[in-house]
Amino acid sequence: MTGNRVRIALVLPDLLGTYGDRGNAIVLAQRLRWRGIGSRLVTVLSSDDAVPEGCDLYLIGGGEDVAQVAAVRFLRRGGGLARAVEHGVPVLGICGGLQVLGTSFVTGDGQRHEGLGLVDAATEPGRGRAIGEVTTQSTLGGVGMLTGFENHLGRTTLGPGSHALGRVVRGVGNGAEEAEGAVTGHVVCTYMHGPVLARNPKLADLLLEWAIGEPLAPLADPPELKALRTERTRVHVRNRK
Amino acid sequence: MTDTTRETDEPSVDQTPAQRRAPEQPPRTGRHRPPDQRQDPEQSSPEQSGTDQTGVDQHWKVVPAPERHPERTRRRDLRTNLAINAGRMAASLSQRLGLGSGGMIGGRLAMTLQPDLLQRLAAGRRVVMVTGTNGKTTTTQMVAEALRAQAPAVSNATGANMLDGHVAALLTRLDAPFAALEVDELHLAQVTERFEPAAILLLNLSRDQLDRVGEVRTVAASLQRALAQVPDAQVIANRDDPNIVFAAIDHPHVTWVSGGVRWRDDALNCPRCGAFIGDVDRDWRCECGLARPPADWKVTDTGVLDAEGTHHELALALPGHVNRVNATFALAAALELGGEEAPALARIRRISQAAGRYDTVRVGGRKVRLLLAKNPASWLEMLDLVSGNDEPLVLVVNSREADGYDVSWLWDVDFEMLRGRPVQVAGDRALDLAVRLRYAQVPATVASTVEVALGGTDGGVPDVIANYTAFRDVLTRSRR
Ligand SMILES: [Zn+2]
């Protein structure tokens, strides 16, 4: 945090920004603004040299196979992201971001690729795509129910170095042991689009508190957000496909 | 396989184009560059016409005459006849039972009876295929209208854009020498497997229902394969969209339209090799060799510039830059198929709605303008359109099968441009939209129905922007 402004890095939206994941940055910036805290969005493109150090929070979205392989190569460059994680800076990885931040993933051509290893999670292709609403009970204190939309082929197995972000109530999630997502320290990964922080303000605030290093003033959820969460976490909401 | 639909008295190749032309049929055409470059094929000797072996100076070629009226002059095999009759009967029955326009069911039945029906119905006609993520329906209607300045043209006006929809459209009038057919991006290859269209229009490609359509790159690769199957077709393509450039660049006959791109997030990296391109507004050249081609037509704030720098005013009834781009594609197609600019343009100009898009109708007793937006790129176009006025605004979003179940794309749309402007929201996913607008600092009111939303607006003629099924529902409940 420099000059009382939280620096939010949107990492590789040109490679990993398939579906609304930029929204997570909008949500974080606005939730800070509502509390009178400034922020600066640092967009890191694949044309840049490396991931800049000194950001307070890193957001990594999802993308295609080819993009994921390119992203790993870029994110390893200079080691900036790994050092930030060592210092406890929060990182949010969505979908392909989860796979890239994990230990390994297998692309459509059957090739296994080494990930960044910032969470202990290995991904292989499943038999069919998991597409639909996903609801979990979060393992993170105070976060509660998580809601999102999943659309992925990957099935992810967690190693001892990570724990799930949530227990699946509805949907597929990682595809093993009713787990969804992966958490190691302040690195939080999930298959949830939605975007996840728009639908789950408590998770957004937890990441912000980690970024700032102190508790934030509570913020009342606007009525439409409350209603949306009720609608989306209702068990009888149809899960098509 | 013997094709009994072909007649033995087809004109021989020695005949001049004029001799080959049957009455009531459109004039032969060439590979038209802008109109003043066109040559009159009738004044040329057969050696000058021919194919394009002579190289770059060749602006036109003689295309074989459309075969004659299939119904009157040809003996068709029984199977084809049966399929045509059954398809038409099913269509009219379904129409009478109020099951919709009946096209799809008729087309599907007819194709079951005669799997070759599409190519048989297309044979002898000059078909223009229109594809891309956005603007297909409007552009197809523009093409159909422009062609009608020359001769009758059929079209899948209701937007049934897969093969059965094409069959249904072609069945509506067997003697129409022209067809303008909208085709789903992923189905063009199936069409070009079956017959060679006279022209193929590639409008744009951007993310659209990832849970259904797949990645933009996949679609671009599929279009490229589709074009490779029809080397003699004239391709008319958007040179400002790198994904379209990638799909069309290897084709031998491309007319490039420059319409600009507002939505860039699917065009930051080279579709061929993945390298960063960055700003697509300039003359980019990727390290792999893919580059932005020079434009044959350049859309301006009021019309279009041809390759010689002559400006053509468009003066459309339809609003916005996006429709000037669509109209330019349609005009280029009409000229390619032998049309004259003035009559073609006159017909394009008069179009004031396309399957309800841009139409002013009454909904719940209130006069409104209907706008369709179904993905980030088209939302951006429509928001741009309405940001020019201060009419009340109603936004409607559903997430049914035809829309895609995931609404995360709402966060790809720059709703921030509506900041401070009160908006009414409705639809299955009104709450998602309201949350999005809250974060964009746009004051929004959630309404249970579009009619309730309209009741919450002040005077004026509200703009209703809706995504696919939401638009369809509002249109169904509306009156002219
Ligand atoms: Zn390239």
Keywords:
heterodimer; A: 241 residues; alpha/beta; Rossmann fold; 6-stranded mixed β-sheet; 12 strands; globular; B: 480 residues; UDP-N-acetylmuramoyl-L-alanine:D-glutamate ligase; Protein-Tyrosine Phosphatase, Chain A; 2 domains; 9-stranded mixed β-sheet; 16 helices; 15 strands; disordered N terminus; binds zinc ion
Task: Note the topology.
The complex is a heterodimer of chains A (241) and B (480).
Chain A (H helix, E strand, L loop, with lengths): L4 E7 L11 H12 L3 E7 L12 E4 L4 H12 L3 H7 L4 E4 L1 H6 L2 E3 L5 E3 L6 E18 L6 E14 L7 E5 L8 E2 L1 E3 L2 E4 L5 H4 L1 H12 L10 H11 L8
Parallel strand pairs in A: 1-2, 1-3, 3-4, 4-12, 5-7
Antiparallel strand pairs in A: 5-6, 7-8, 7-9, 9-10, 11-12
Helix pairs in contact in A: 1-6
Chain B lengths: L16 H4 L49 H4 L4 H19 L6 H11 L3 H6 L3 E6 L4 H13 L4 E3 L7 H9 L6 E5 L5 H7 L4 E4 L13 H13 L5 E5 L3 H7 L5 E5 L38 E3 L3 E4 L4 E3 L7 H16 L4 H10 L9 E4 L2 E7 L3 H11 L6 E4 L26 E4 L3 H10 L4 E3 L3 H6 L7 E4 L1 H9 L4
Parallel strand pairs in B: 1-3, 1-4, 2-3, 4-5, 5-6, 6-7, 11-15, 12-13, 12-15, 13-14
Antiparallel strand pairs in B: 7-8, 8-9, 10-11
Helix pairs in contact in B: 3-4, 4-7, 6-11, 6-12, 8-9, 9-10, 11-12
